[in-house]
Amino acid sequence: MGPITNYQLPITMVHFKIGFQHFNSFADITFSLAKTLDKMGIPISVEPSKIASHVTRICTEEENTLITKWIRNPPSDLFQIKWSHYWKPYFLKELNAHLNLELFAINYEFATNRDEFDYWMYDVVNNTSHKLAVSEYSKNVLIQAGCPATNASVLPLGFNPFISELYSYKIQNFYKLQKTRPDVKSILHMTNSFDIYRFGTDVAIQAFCQEFKYESHVELIIKDGGKHPELIIELIRDFEKNFGAFKPIIHIIPKFFDKKELAEFYLSADAFLAPFRGEGFAIKILDAFAAGLPVAMTLYGGPTDYANNANCYPISYDIIPVGKCYDTQYLKIGNSPHWAEPNVQSVREQLRKIVEDPMRFQVAQKARETADLFDWEATAKKLLRLMRQLF
To answer: By the 8 A CB rule, do 298 and 276 touch?
Structure first.
């Protein structure tokens, strides 16, 4: 296949066999990638579906018009893309193009591949679609499970573009901000109450309360992307029951944010805490990098594609069997799945270091420079290069 710019483009070139009837990370990532391709002049289509109200709310009028146009466009038989996932509405979708591609992310690894895999992993390893793993970690899990290396590539994701637009204002006021707020006041933790243990929310609460038990000058802000903030309140109450009352303030914010509001939310914080157990890529952490926040995080899994000892505050961990999480509720996972167990003492030490480290601005600047390499235009260009090579 020659350069796409010289190719006689059909009515549509790339079809996303992904709908917008649900508001989730699949829809969010699909929209960002599709919008970028559309802006680059690549004709696309998406699966016809009712558009979820949350999707409509986060989109501008122009963006909603775009989605409607994509739905009406006839599907391309050149390139088709879907998400590889165990949820049946995604798993059962069939691709029938000249080149079929599956986006793939996983939050854990397998210690063996001797036993029969669950139906999802068996399918993704053995079907003929080319896998677009969102990180080297996810790609390596596929290969170790038996997927041919030639049938898997890495397609990294991008951060919220509104963060870049608003970040310049933050830089203009940087020195003023240092003078008026020289200390870390608010630490942001992003979670989802559907899967709070995977995100390490229990560890975040325990470490924060233990480290700042007698101090009230630092607050932990927990943004819940799920619908059960009462589960987070229960974790706080359990901690108080076991360890006694504490002075530090914890705010739980279950409010829904659109993209711009979310960018403003990141930029309003002073630091970011992510003691997760498993992540395939973690856009939320990349967003924190893009916002120029010092980040304390488990240095494991997908985020190691962009995070290292120089641009974050790494939390030490042990590799342990996968515990309670969304996946174990829906899958009978074999072959000894493992992920990270963040060390609570290490979380405490890195939190303290962020609060007191005079070099945190330099660490955060390195994170910001790293995030610039992971925008959606770079993702779209890499996808187009892969399609040329594989077609």
So the answer is: yes
Q: How far is Cα 135 from Cα 153, in angstroms, rounded to an integer?
A: 9
Q: Which residue has the tokens 């579906």?
A: 49
pLDDT, one tens digit per residue, over 37-84 is 999 999 999 999 999 988 888 888 999 999 999 999 999 999 999 999
CA distance 313 to 298: 9
Instruction: Determine the Cα–Cα distance for residues 189 and 223; give it in Å rounded to an integer.
Output: 6
On the 0-12 / 13-18 / 19+ scale of CB atoms within 10 A, 166 is middle
Rounded Cα–Cα distance for residues 275 and 203 (Å):
7
Q: Which two tokens stand for residue 139?
A: 């790609």
The one-letter amino acid at 246: F
Sign of CA dihedral 309, 206, 250, 235: positive
Query: Among 210-214, 216-220, 245-249, 333-337, whose mean pLDDT is lowest?
Result: 245-249
The pTM of this model reads 0.93
Q: How distant, in Å, are the alpha carbons of 39, 268, 284, 369, 384 from that of 225?
A: 29, 18, 11, 27, 32
Alpha-carbon distance values, 294 to 45, 333, 367, 375 (Å) = 39, 35, 8, 19
Q: Determine whether 230 is exposed, middle or buried from the number of CB atoms within 10 Å of its CB (0-12, 13-18, 19+).
A: exposed
Structure tokens at 225: 């992307």
Query: Would you say 281 and 135 are in contact if contact means Cβ atoms under 8 Å apart?
Result: yes
Q: What are 175's two structure tokens? A: 């020195």
Q: Which residue has the tokens 């509001």?
A: 261
What is the pLDDT confidence band of residue 168, given thresholds at 50, 70 and 90? confident
Each residue of 6-44: pLDDT tens digit? 444 457 899 999 999 988 999 999 999 999 999 999 999
**Tokens, residue 384:** 């187009």
Token pair for residue 335? 């072959």
The reported pLDDT for the residue numbered 6 is 47
* CA 57 centroid distance within chain: 20
Q: Which residues contact residue 282 at a Cβ distance below 8 angstroms, ignoring those fewer than 6 apart?
A: 274, 276, 301, 302, 303
